[in-house]
Specification:
The chain has 311 residues and is mainly β. It is 13% helix and 38% strand. Helix 2 packs across helix 3.
């Protein structure tokens, strides 16, 4: 029988700023189990003023957990029993919930899509209304919330060594794909036995591109069903919603990311239909949308969205 586990965010269950194959797992589950993961976000410099709920574990993490380099606070890793390198981890995102009544956004000099054009550090606290499903900006604009995790990842290959959480790569990481909401399934290629899944970088909402380098950053709780797939082989993350297939790619050059994400979609179409590559290429031109995932994380992202109905 599949089980449900709860993994709280705490100084001993998070890692801050770095990924690595050698980070010890803090929980082990079986394939098909569900893990409810609590996450927090941000350093001491983004804490709100009085009148907001600050998860106490965030303050404890600030005090006790080393921040190796600039990057994200991630809860995990979770080891999946029996997962082997070369297989695929299916991550069913069953639910995503707010854990606090505020988020933050900042502009940092020399960062973002217009690096060098904004010279002052600018921060704002954004009030989150869970009942209404809205975030209220300081000047009064209300935005509908569509929470998702910017970072979901398995362990990177061991020979990469420790790497920053900022750049998305083949193991997932800081994908910042706003389609990864509740109901979406993410597929991650496994590089290390056990998979070692972590999540964090909660977003209340985000536009494609995430142009100023931050979304509405906040604390979230995710309900994830983790299933090992030995009938799949992937080079890059993919995703699936009830309505669409999504392929992704990441590169410093946005054109190269677009080309690879398109190749991945052509491969998917050919595997799921009797179309040849030329027909699949034409179908992409007629029915697929190439979207800019983000352009601010070093490795930029493109995701290709194809309606299932056209297959």
């Amino acid at each position: 029988m599949a089980e449900t586990h709860h993994l709280a965010a705490a100084p001993k269950t998070v890692h801050w700023g770095l990924f690595g194959a050698d980070i010890a797992p803090v929980m082990e589950v079986r394939s098909g189990d569900t893990v409810v993961i609590d996450t927090v976000s941000g350093g001491p410099d983004v804490l709100p003023g009085d009148g907001y709920h600050v998860p106490p574990e965030l303050l404890a993490i600030h005090a006790e957990t080393p921040r190796h380099v600039p990057g994200h606070i991630l809860t995990g890793p979770v080891r999946v029993t029996g997962a082997k390198a070369g297989q695929v981890l299916q991550v069913d995102i069953l639910d995503v919930r707010l854990r606090q009544d505020w988020g933050y956004n900042f502009i940092r000099p020399l960062a973002g899509a217009l690096a060098g054009e904004f010279h002052e550090m600018t921060k704002m606290t954004i009030r989150l209304d869970d009942a209404r499903g809205e975030g209220e900006l300081p000047w009064g604009t209300r935005l509908p919330l569509r929470p998702f995790f910017g970072v979901m990842r398995v362990a990177p290959p061991a020979n990469w060594g420790p790497i920053s959480t900022i750049q998305p790569r083949a193991h997932g990481g800081n994908i910042d794909n706003k389609e990864m909401v509740a109901g979406t399934t993410l597929f991650l290629p496994i590089f290390v036995d056990g998979a070692h899944f972590s999540a964090g970088d909660g977003h209340g909402c985000q536009g494609d591109g995430e142009v100023c380098v931050t979304a509405i950053e906040t604390a979230l709780q995710g309900h994830f069903r983790l299933t090992v797939r030995d009938d799949m082989s992937l080079a890059l993350p993919r995703a699936e919603t009830a309505e669409a297939f999504i392929t992704m790619a990441f590169d410093e050059d946005l054109d190269d990311a677009a080309k690879e994400a398109l190749r991945q979609m052509i491969d998917l179409i050919c595997a799921r239909s009797n179309l040849d590559r030329a027909q699949a290429y034409a179908l992409c031109s007629l029915a697929a949308d190439l979207r800019v995932t983000q352009i601010v994380n070093g490795n930029k992202g493109i995701h290709v969205v194809l309606p299932k109905s056209v297959l």
